[in-house]
């Protein structure tokens, strides 16, 4: 036997019947009709037609032999004729010759019959026989199996025989026999590697073929195939589907009666093995899904339906019809050892398979509900089997679905097909589809930042900055999704990029409430789903301090909005016709524009904050510093809000740290923010040593003298204790602001003195006026000053005073007073301070001329002050002090 897909693995066993029972018939005998028996071992198949002439040396087989003189004489003698006289009776005259001729013929026949049964002829038949199937079709299903029609071409090709002696003997025997015919035969099929059980039988009708060299016989016959042990067939099928079948050996046994013409050749007991291995084994056909549509179940049914159109590649010369079939569709569990999980069913209509013609298969699927084990989280994982399957599909990665066979809705389908295909599970590769960027638009509204709490564990989510916002996401839907879909919750792990550099990670580990609205396709735009979610306290993990500093710098100092790129793996909780479940790790990308601080006010940066400080109160003192508390009003120029549980910032002058300011439990909203309590510790010596002491003195002296001074605010590693990296990142952006003015109480005024600054409504001088006025007593050489303390609750003390008064730059008098006196909150009077007049000076003469009136004086002073335990030396330069001159 020879097939296009196999190779011979063993030899056949010749019959033990004696050659004397065989007879021979000339190659010119009348052609007989095929009998009803044949064999699978001997490739002798029934024919519909044949050629009667061969190629090569066998072309002389049909030429009549010429008679030689010797043979002519012998014939004449046997016929009793003579050229010289009358003939004698044959049996009396030539009986020895007749007997010799009969013996010679019998010997020739015996020799030929013996030759036809030799092993050489069998070897020739095996190697020279060539059968090429042209069409294999399934004619019908029978009650016990299938009836197939086999069509092909049978040829004996002597050139394929390796041994010259076997080739010559075989060609001679084929020339003598000319045609060979088999009777109807039963072939038993076995698989030796799977035990001795028979896996099937084939009933092959009688077949007649021309066996002369290079003669071709066109064959067409029907054979009945009946399956054997269903369990063995299923075991083989499962091994093949699981990839454990490296090769398969099929062993056939049959007793084949043969004859040539009217001469029976005896019954041949044939046993052959055919081995398929490697690429010779058949494989599942290639296929391509040309249509895929997911929809709601029809006809009022519950659940969802799916319509598939599959183009299946057919490389085989087969022709048969597949009856309508229904199968179960399953997917993998959490681990390979778990049983498969049934998802739904799929059904096909009747499909006709034509030889080597690709076929279109329409499949209808249905899912009524999802089993619990499909949506439950796997052990040691946040994913369910459904998450893994959908995630692989949406990332373009292949998955596997399992088709469990089979149900046949057509009642005419034989029962044996149900028994044979029962419980066979076929793995089918399910190619993924890279969805690309499903996110069409991504935006954040009503953004609220929450800074970490002071006592948060540095490794906990509470130690990260947190974001609350209204997220709007427009998700592009594949055209295949045509069923109601409502998003009820979202979660995500999102990477945040600036200029393609990742600096943060946004964690949405808890489900965030959401709702969705479907937007139908319009124009070239496909359908989409608008998802809105109210995110609460999502932690933002800072991964790169330097890049984050660039982001903050762009927000604070930039003149135009910056853009942040977000790449997320989103988890979506959806409500569908088959129930509520979660789909995890959907790839999403978006761009979030962020406006800079003060963008709506001309890009002023932090200058748009416009801070104002009032109600300054000293809370505590130390030998080197004071603790103050004040109320601050400022403007938030952004649309973002923030909650600040704890925030500490350094106060610097000329890059020298003089103290820190701290805010606790502050809620910042867009627009004006008032009465924000801030605590500051002024301690230049502790922070910066001798340099801090000197710069601190200069700051206070310039400040009380009315000079324009400024403070620099800069974060540090301890700004947010639980998030040092955030403070470090912000430290690259020091903010310099004018020193806030302190406003003391205004004295009462009748509004009629145009020379009184307090009576001038146009006066908006914010300079501190600690000395409101003075009264000079010429006779007693003393002076009394009215002081306005900027402190609302604390009394400060002047412990030493060394001051000089000037008029138009000329000294008028000098005060040297070393006794401490108190300056209580509000307006107060100093004790009478002794004055050493500069007699004869221009300044003193001006004072005398102003006796009974007033004049404007300036003063330079070195002053020592004390507040609680804190002492500070300062200098004062003041001008335009109104002085009343009295005797």
Distance between the termini: 147 Å
Number of strands: 45
Average pLDDT, to the nearest integer?
75
Q: What is the count of distinct domains?
A: 5
Helix tally equals: 13
Helix content: 10-25%
Please identify the oligomeric state. single chain
Describe the global form.
rod-shaped
Main sheet properties:
14 strands, mixed
Query: Residue ranges: pLDDT <50 for 5 or more in a row?
Result: 1-87, 110-117, 750-765
The class by helix and strand makeup works out as alpha+beta
Radius of gyration: 55 Å
| Portion in beta strands | over 45%
Task: Give me a quick take on this structure.
This protein has 13 helices and 45 strands. The chain is an alpha+beta fold and 887 residues long.
Word description of this protein:
The chain is about 15% helix and about 45% strand. Helix 4 (about 120-130) crosses helix 5 and helix 10 (about 545-555) crosses helix 12. Strands 21, 22, 24, 25, 26, 27, 28, 29, 30, 31, 32, 33, 34 and 35 form a 14-stranded mixed beta sheet that branches. Strands 1, 2, 3, 4, 5, 6, 7, 8, 9, 10, 11, 14 and 17 form a 13-stranded mixed beta sheet that branches. The protein has five domains: about 5-15 and about 90-280, no CATH class; about 285-430, Immunoglobulin-like (Sandwich); about 440-595, no CATH class; about 605-740, Immunoglobulin-like; about 755-885, Immunoglobulin-like. It is rod-shaped.
């Amino acid at each position: 036997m020879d097939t296009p897909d196999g190779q011979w693995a063993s030899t056949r066993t010749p019959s033990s019947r004696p050659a004397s029972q065989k007879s021979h018939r000339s190659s010119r005998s009348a052609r007989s009709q095929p009998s009803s028996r044949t064999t699978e071992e001997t490739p002798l198949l029934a024919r519909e037609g044949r050629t009667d002439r061969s190629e090569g040396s066998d072309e002389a087989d049909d030429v009549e032999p010429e008679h030689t003189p010797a043979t002519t004489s012998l014939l004449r003698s046997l016929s009793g004729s003579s050229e010289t006289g009358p003939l004698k009776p044959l049996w009396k005259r030539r009986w020895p010759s007749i007997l010799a001729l009969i013996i010679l013929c019998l010997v020739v026949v015996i020799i030929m019959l013996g030759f036809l049964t030799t092993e050489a002829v069998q070897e020739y038949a095996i190697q020279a026989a060539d059968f090429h199937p042209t069409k294999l079709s399934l004619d019908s299903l029978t009650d016990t199996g299938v009836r197939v029609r086999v069509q092909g071409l049978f040829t004996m090709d002597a050139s394929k025989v390796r041994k010259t002696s076997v080739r010559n003997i075989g060609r001679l025997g084929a020339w003598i026999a000319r045609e060979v015919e088999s009777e109807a035969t039963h072939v038993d099929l076995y698989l030796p590697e799977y035990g001795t059980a028979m896996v099937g039988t084939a009933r092959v009708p009688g077949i007649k073929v021309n066996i002369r060299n290079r003669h071709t016989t066109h064959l067409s016959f029907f054979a009945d195939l009946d399956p054997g042990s269903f369990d063995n067939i299923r075991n083989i099928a499962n091994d093949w589907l699981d990839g454990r079948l490296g090769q398969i050996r099929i062993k056939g046994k049959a007793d084949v009666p043969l004859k040539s013409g009217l001469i029976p050749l005896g019954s041949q007991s044939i046993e052959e093995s055919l081995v398929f291995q490697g690429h010779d084994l058949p494989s599942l056909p290639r296929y391509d899904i040309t249509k895929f549509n997911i929809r709601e179940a029809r006809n009022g049914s519950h659940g969802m339906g799916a319509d598939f159109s599959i183009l299946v590649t057919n490389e085989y010369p087969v022709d048969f019809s597949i009856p309508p079939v229904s199968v179960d569709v399953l997917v993998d569990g959490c681990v390979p050892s778990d049983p498969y999980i049934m998802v739904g069913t799929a059904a096909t209509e009747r499909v006709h398979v034509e030889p080597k013609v690709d076929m279109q298969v329409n499949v209808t699927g249905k899912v009524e509900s999802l089993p619990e084990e499909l949506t439950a989280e796997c052990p040691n994982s946040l994913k369910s089997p459904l998450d893994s399957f959908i995630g692989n599909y949406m990332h373009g990665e292949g998955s596997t679905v399992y088709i469990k066979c089979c149900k046949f809705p057509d009642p005419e389908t034989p029962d044996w097909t149900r028994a044979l295909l029962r419980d066979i599970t076929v793995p089918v590769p399910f190619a993924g589809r890279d969805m690309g960027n499903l996110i069409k638009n991504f935006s954040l509204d009503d953004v609220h930042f929450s800074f970490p709490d002071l006592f948060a564990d540095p490794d906990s989510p509470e130690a990260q900055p947190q974001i609350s916002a209204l997220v709007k996401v427009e998700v592009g839907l594949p055209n295949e999704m045509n069923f109601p879909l409502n998003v009820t919750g979202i979660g995500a792990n999102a990477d945040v990029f600036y200029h393609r550099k990742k600096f943060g990670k946004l964690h949405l580990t808890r489900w965030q409430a959401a709702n969705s609205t479907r937007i139908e396709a319009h124009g070239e735009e496909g359908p989409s789903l608008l998802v809105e979610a109210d995110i609460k306290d999502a932690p933002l993990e800072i991964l790169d301090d330097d890049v984050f500093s660039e982001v903050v710098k762009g927000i604070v100092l930039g003149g135009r909005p910056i853009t942040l790129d977000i790449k997320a793996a989103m988890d979506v909780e959806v409500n569908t016709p088959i129930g509520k479940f979660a789909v995890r790790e959907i790839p999403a990308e978006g761009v979030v524009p962020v406006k800079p601080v003060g963008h709506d006010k001309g890009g002023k940066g932090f200058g748009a904050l416009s801070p104002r400080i009032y109600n300054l109160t000293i809370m505590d003192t130390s030998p080197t510093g004071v603790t103050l508390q004040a109320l601050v009003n400022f403007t938030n120029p952004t649309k973002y809000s923030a909650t600040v549980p704890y925030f500490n910032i350094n106060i610097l002058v000329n890059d020298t740290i003089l103290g820190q300011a701290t805010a606790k439990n502050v809620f910042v909203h867009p627009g004006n923010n008032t009465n924000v309590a801030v605590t500051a510790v002024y301690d230049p010596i502790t922070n910066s040593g001798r340099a801090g002491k000197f710069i601190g003195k200069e700051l206070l002296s310039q400040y009380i003298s009315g000079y324009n001074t400024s403070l620099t605010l800069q974060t540090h590693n301890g700004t947010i204790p639980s998030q040092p990296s955030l403070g470090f990142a912000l430290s690259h952006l020091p903010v310099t602001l004018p020193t806030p003015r302190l406003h003391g109480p205004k004295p009462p005024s009748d509004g009629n003195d145009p020379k009184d600054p307090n009576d001038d409504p146009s006066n908006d001088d914010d300079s501190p006026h600690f000395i409101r006025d003075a009264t000079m007593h010429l006779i007693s050489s003393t002076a009394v000053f009215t002081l306005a303390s900027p402190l609302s609750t604390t009394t400060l003390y002047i412990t030493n005073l060394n001051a000089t008064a000037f008029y138009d730059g000329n000294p008028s008098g000098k005060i040297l007073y070393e006794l401490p006196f108190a300056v209580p909150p509000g307006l107060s009077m100093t004790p009478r301070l002794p004055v050493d007049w500069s007699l004869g000076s221009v300044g003193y003469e001006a004072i005398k001329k102003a006796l009974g009136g007033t004049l404007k004086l300036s003063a330079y002073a070195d002053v020592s002050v004390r507040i609680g335990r804190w002492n500070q030396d300062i200098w004062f330069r003041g001008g335009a002090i109104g002085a009343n001159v009295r005797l």
